[in-house]
Amino acid sequence: MRLDRAALLFGAACCAATSQTGPVSPAEDAVRNWYQVVNNGSDQQHLADFGIIGDGPQPLERAYSSLAPTLRSRMSREEFLAGYRGLARLTLLQDHSMTGSSPDSERVLVEEERTMVLEGIPAVAWFEGLITVTKTSEGWKISELKDVKPEDIISTPIGGEMPWHTDPAAVAMASLHCEGAAGCKIKTKPLPQTTSTRPGKVTVQTPDGLYTVSMAKLHNGSWIVLETKQETGYVGK
Predict the structure, then answer these.
(1) Which residues pair with 212 in a beta bridge?
(2) How far is CA 157 from CA 151, 160, 192, 220, in A?
(3) pLDDT tens digits, 6-59
(4) 232's torsion region: left (phi>0), alpha (psi -120 to 50) or beta?
(5) What is the average per-residue pLDDT within 160-179?
(6) To 10 degrees, what angle do helices 26-38 and 58-65 make?
(7) What rounded mean pLDDT belongs to the chain?
């Protein structure tokens, strides 16, 4: 039976980091492959009232088995499955590999859509955060998942404490500490668009130089800075 979509209230969870665009990294490829395993998994035990959903818990169990040994040593199979209680379907919406990591460890920003049942109520929730991927003897494996948390889908769209997070120009300017600076201005027009694998970009002229700010737009409308890169061949005023 298909689950109806419904709004789900959750607390805020935002992250900011540096990002790398271009070819898919081994860590990013590992993340995408892992989500392909999870994709059709479901917590059938808590979905009995809705019939047979997906492939049951087997994909989730395989996903747990494919995590890095260091993560499995800290998190039991039961603890892992508890994090997906009531899950009917999970979709990876976007992923962006991060720079600034060591050669054997990388962070990847992900955004998920989860169709699930909470206290008997069908709902759709969006999660985002940073996944850590580590190079092991068996290849690149996910070694940390704890920072993937529910998005704030309530306060951000209606203003909340930081309504400027939904304005990509304001986010780009703030990342360069340009608030109120007379020598800063947006050079890119129109403002960026993102895809599931490619961040949007805004170019900002500052007194110190010309910068390209790469950003990702979440489902809740917030923009997250992924990378700030100074362009060469430009002399600031």
Answers:
(1) 203, 229
(2) 12, 8, 19, 7
(3) 333 233 233 333 334 457 888 899 999 999 999 889 999 989 888 889 899 999
(4) beta
(5) 83
(6) 150
(7) 83
Contact between 127 and 109 (Cβ < 8 Å): no
Structure tokens that stand for 209 in this block? 């130089």
100-107 LR contacts (CB < 8 Å, sep 24+): 100/17, 100/18, 103/135, 104/134, 104/135, 105/132, 105/133, 105/134, 105/135, 105/143, 106/25, 106/27, 106/28, 106/132, 106/133, 106/134, 106/140, 107/17, 107/131, 107/132, 107/133
Q: Which amino acid is at 107?
A: R
Q: Which residue has the tokens 């960026």?
A: 192
44: Cα within 13 Å, side-chain hemisphere: 13
* Cα of 176 vs its chain's centroid, Å: 22
In contact, 18 and 53? CB cutoff 8 Å: no
Distance CA 216, CA 157 (A): 16
- What letter would DSSP give residue 154? S
